[in-house]
Amino acid sequence: MLKYNKKLKPISHTLRKNMTDAEILLWLRIKGKQIKETQFYRQKPIGNYIADFYCSKAKLIIEVDGSQHYEEKGIEKDEVRDKYFESLGLKVLRFTNIDVLKNINGVLERIYEEV
Question: pTM of the entire structure?
Fold first, then answer.
């Protein structure tokens, strides 16, 4: 079981209630073991971070990124975050909101390949 900062639990609950349109669309397509009978969790605290989606069986994190992730500060933060996840043996897949909203089938195919 992955350790996490317990202070993040209430934040993760709030994030679940306030998901972006792209996160909602992806969640509707991966919840309930729709991809290779694997369970995904949303807004999962891991260490000092909250992953958008997490699949323990595949050791996979999926991030759905808005525009702030493509500014210099966002890129730097994501690199640190991804290295931390990778140090735990997890793989990180990143998609833009636009990828998810306009090419959901391509996104799902990529996730299916990783699972």
Answer: 0.91
Separation of CA 104 from chain center:
15
For the chain, give every domain's residue range: 6-114
CATH, range 6-114: 3.40.960.10
DSSP per residue, 44-70: EEEBTEEEEEEETTTTEEEEEE-GGGG
Q: Measured on CA atoms in the order 45, 48, 50, 55, is the torsion positive or negative?
A: negative
List pLDDT tens digits, range 31-62. 999 999 999 999 999 999 999 999 999 999 99
- In the block, which residue shows the tokens 């605290």? 45
Rounded-to-integer distance, Cα 24 and Cα 89, Å: 27
